[in-house]
């Protein structure tokens, strides 16, 4: 990641932990991952991420399994890890929903998913590190991002602030894809051997240091 993204995300996030997403989306407080969901092993098909997401969103595990299945059918993990992140779009999307900038307008599936992934990064690394120790990793991070996307989409839809053609499944898929890119890049840029191992809190803190 180049330095532009890190600097821009600093401006988006700022130091105000009391910011809430526009539209009434209230996020979980305390340490992340929350203690209510197991992170599971960093399995190749990300089914553990579906379990985590279902523990923190209204949708059931099958919903998130279907989304992940669709994502991985379109793009193998190795391809996702090697793709670049649209930095400008991701930052501006987060600012639209979680910041205090001027970015307004109907929510698209892509903007909701991208914003949710960066919000998950912030939440995942800003809790009580002692409580979070041992509960981090690929599945917990991707699951949190997908749950954030599902809740953010609902909040925007309840206000009629959703772009025609936008749908929750696509928003959640985008969040999962962006979060997986961030995680895999923090592990060396791809889903190669060992990409899912040894992440935990240390790996996620290393990831956050690139952006926050």
UniProtKB/TrEMBL annotation:
Q: List the InterPro entries.
A: DUF7721 (IPR056138)
Which regions are flagged for Basic and acidic residues bias? Answer: 1-21
Among Pfam families, the record links this protein to:
DUF7721
- Superkingdom, according to UniProt? Eukaryota
For the region Disordered, give the residue spans.
Answer: 1-58
Domain named DUF7721: residues: 45-128
Under what name is this protein listed? Answer: DUF7721 domain-containing protein
